[in-house]
Design goal:
By secondary structure, this protein is α+β, with helices and mostly antiparallel strands. The chain has two domains: about 260 residues, Transposase IS200-like (Alpha-Beta Plaits), CATH 3.30.70.1290; about 35 residues. It contains 14 helices and eight strands. Strands 2-3-1-4-6-7 form a six-stranded mixed beta sheet, sandwiched between helices. A hairpin with a 3-residue loop joins strand 2 and strand 3. About 0% of the residues have low confidence.
Length: about 325
Amino acid sequence: MRVARILGEGESFYHILSRIVDRRLILDEREKERFRRLMRAVEAFSGCQVLTWACLSNHWHICLRVPEPEPVTDKELIRRLHYLYDHTAVEKVTSELANLRASGKDEEADTLKSRYTRRMYNLSEFVKTLKQRFTMSYNQRHDRQGTLWESRFKSVLFEGSRRGLWTLASYIDLNAVRAGIVSDPQDYRFCGYAEAVAGVKISREGLVRVMQSPNGKSANWERLGKHYRHLLYQRGAKAPDRNRGGIDAERIQEVLANGGNLTMREALHCRVRYFSDGMILGSRVFVDETFHRYRSNFGVKRQTGARSMRSLRPNRLFTARRLQHEPVSLPILC
């Protein structure tokens, strides 16, 4: 039986992960670029914001901000439709809406609009649209049929605090480093940080949202981009000259084998299952509050939601699941 997906209240933040069926390595550079373009189109249509992302050969990660739903005018709907539909389809909707409004049939016009607006500001609809459209495109181009993705997508509800978002964003942008593809995250073009370094405005805006202070003052890439790069290296990226404090995989393996705890800096070189299987991640208060809203998802004997992260030194982040089997392990190269 499927467990109900954990969702936030109001503006919410998620780590989303999906893998290719059988974890086949089929996403080459051309497919990754197609994925990037489609992801940005779905983002523009949905009203959600991709804060950062990474696409590798058999899976992808997205840090997604889902804002509070806003009213969508007819004009705004038509503008957004252009991101996902061809000119003929958009003209048809435009004409139908205009005719219904002119005839005073506002209720019918709103029903027509709802076919599209119900897919906006919605986590599941964002992922559904992205995965379905990529599958259709891939299958058509490769003369293929059937599912492309492995089971349901995974999502973890993250607290929108700076600490939580910093940790998540750096984990995602360090994916290619962890997999041994590059030594510097800016050298892997299919991630949010590399896009931002290359000058892509929308990627810079996403990472500024990750790094900015709660009041949003002085939020600009020139200032915050430097802090984010420092964070990436401080938390685990190894520079090409190997002199910037990277952590060797052998050292991490030694600590894990001896039952010791890793710092978050060390853990970000590893595969941390809490980020994909933890269900909820944030401060103790945030996890407990969300736990009580979704009380029926948990066992009747359980009294509290927040659990410390096994194998990690205390970093003031908690999770809803206490993972027992390899919560932290070295990455599988892909």
